[in-house]
Write the structure tokens for this entry.
Amino acid sequence: MYFTDRGIEELEQRRGDEEVTLAWLGERLQEFVDVHPEFETPIERFATWLARLDDPDDD
């Protein structure tokens, strides 16, 4: 099991009943990068991947 799997499972257990907006998620990611700037590139890649997930031009 990857560490991310455990983190995702914990997130689902603790916050799984909540509904959030993409704006809220974006704000939390920005706050995270402010505290942990070494994660700026991975967070940017993740956000870009999510943004383009259903874009047929990116296949």
Summary: The helical segments are 3-15, 22-35, 40-52. The radius of gyration is 13 Å.
